[in-house]
Amino acid sequence: MHLNSPGVALVSLRSAIEFDREYALKAISDGDFTPYETSVATLLYQLRQQAALEVERLLNKLEEEKEALERKRAREYFLAEKLDLADFESSIQRAVTLVGENTFFGFLDATKYCLKAEGDLGRLTKSVQEEHFKREEKIKEEAQARLDKAYGALVISLSSLLCCLLGPVGLGLGIYSFVTLTKHDVRGYAYALLAILLGLVTTSLMLYLVVGLMTGTIK
User: Fold this and answer.
1) Does one domain contain both 51 and 147?
2) Same domain, residue pair 22 and 105
3) Which pLDDT belongs to residue 174?
4) CA distance 120 to 15
5) Which pLDDT tens digit goes with each residue over 2-27?
6) What's the CA dihedral at 133, 134, 140, 141 to 10 degrees?
7) Cα separation of 128 and 84, whole Å?
8) Can you tell me the distance from the alpha carbon of 176 to that of 174, in angstroms, rounded to the nearest whole number?
9) Confidence check: pLDDT of 134 > 80
10) Do 128 and 77 form a contact (C-beta atoms < 8 A)?
């Protein structure tokens, strides 16, 4: 210690404690500091108060961030499941317990748990975002798939209707549906084949009627 410069020594001691808290214990037991016991005690008190204020700031900040995340999940990430705050709450509870000890080391340890809780909340935020966007993309894909099926069913239904009214046209549309639409939906094969079958039947029926009327077979 700078025996002739206690002010300089206390500044060095403060820096040492901030770097490694074990120096606080060494300062108490170091005979060089005995003449300045009051100054050392004041320094340790100031450091304890500083640590207490830092923990309080972190706890308040974390509570605000948690509430903000809950609101954001309800408004923006509503597709994600309920927030799993177990790890976060565990870290916060441990920090609060250590704060209750009202000691310098307790406040320093509480700060570590607050930083851990901050990391837990950050990971949870990222997880919620990813889950929401993943579910959103899945919903979009499912909606597009349903739209494709509806469109295919509509075209094929129209093809089937035309088969009944205009056999050749229905037949052509049925074949077109079979070639272009069924690759989107396996069930489309059934619709297209039905359209083709109806087209063939109605076309054959029309030809039979036309030939019959022309030959007099059908009166």
Assistant:
1) no
2) yes
3) 57
4) 30
5) 455 666 777 887 888 888 888 888 87
6) 160
7) 9
8) 5
9) yes
10) yes
Return contacts of 32-38, CB within 8 angstroms, 24+ apart: 32/1, 32/3, 33/1, 33/9, 35/6, 36/6, 36/9, 36/10
118 plus 61 within the same structural domain: yes
Contact 115, 92 (CB under 8 A): no
State the SS3 of 31-94: HHHHHHHHHHHHHHHHHHHHHHHHHHHHHHHHHHHHHHHHHHHHHCCCCCCCCCCHHHHHHHHH
Mean pLDDT confidence for 147-165: 56
Q: For the full predicted model, state whether its pTM sits above 0.70.
A: no
Asked if residues 136 and 79 have their Cβ atoms less than 8 Å apart, the reply is: yes
Given 139, 164, 195, which residue is the final one in a domain?
139
Same domain membership, residue 12 and residue 52: yes
Burial class (CB in 10 A: 0-12, 13-18, 19+), 17: buried
- DSSP assignments along 97-126, one per residue: HHHTT--HHHHHHHHHHHHHHHHHHHHHHH
Question: Under a CB-based contact definition with an 8 Å cutoff, are residues 161 and 143 in contact?
Answer: no
Domain that holds residue 211: 140-215
Q: Please give the Cα distance from 59 to 164 (Å, whole number).
A: 75
The 10 Å Cβ neighbour count of residue 138 is: 11
Vertex 114: Cα angle to 110 and 115 (nearest 5): 120
